[in-house]
Amino acid sequence: MKTMRWLLLGVTLLALVPVAADTGNPLQPLSGLTVCDSKGKTVGGVIEGAFYLSHVPVVALKAGDQVVTVGAKPNYLVGNDQIVFATPDCSGTPYFVVPTSLGYLPTLIPQSFVTNEGTLYTPGAGSSPLTVNVLSSWQTEFPPPPAANACYSPYELAEVSVVEAQAVGDLNAMFQPPFALRSFGWVRGDRPMREASSPER
Description:
Blueprint: H1 2-21, E1 30-36, E2 42-48, E3 58-63, E4 66-72, E5 77-78, E6 83-85, E7 95-97, E8 113-114, E9 119-123, E10 130-134, E11 136-138, E12 157-170, H2 171-174, E13 180-188, E14 191-195
Antiparallel strand pairs: 1-2, 1-13, 2-3, 3-4, 4-5, 6-11, 7-12, 8-9, 9-12, 10-12, 13-14
């Protein structure tokens, strides 16, 4: 008898779920969330919410044969790592530190860095790891845009594994801030509720 009462209660609650969703609930799950620039051009679909120690939407882009991720802040885009140099003044060849050489676990997410001028860097295609002494770096939002990236020095990492970083595109030429979140619609329960108009591409 007790089992039957619990069963009836469960059925009643399940029956009330769509009713609750249909009676003015102001919070509804979203679908098709994207980041768009000031002209409505889609930067990319949002794939996660936490990025580079900040809470920003993250989008995936195609850079040659690589899939790369960047974060969208209101007025600029950011990468997920820093660029380092074997010189004390951020001159010469730019590198990414191989994460495993610092004790991090391997990841499928490629490294990226966006300069304050909008240049996107990714690991060079076919670049082989080499060992260097890191003496300086460019770091995300140091200082924040629109100022040019400052050289962070001294920044010393002895004998770490690095790969060469290459510039693959100018994001400022592709997208115009400010950026905003848009959705192609929202869902109520598991049913599509409405499809919003697509932004211009």
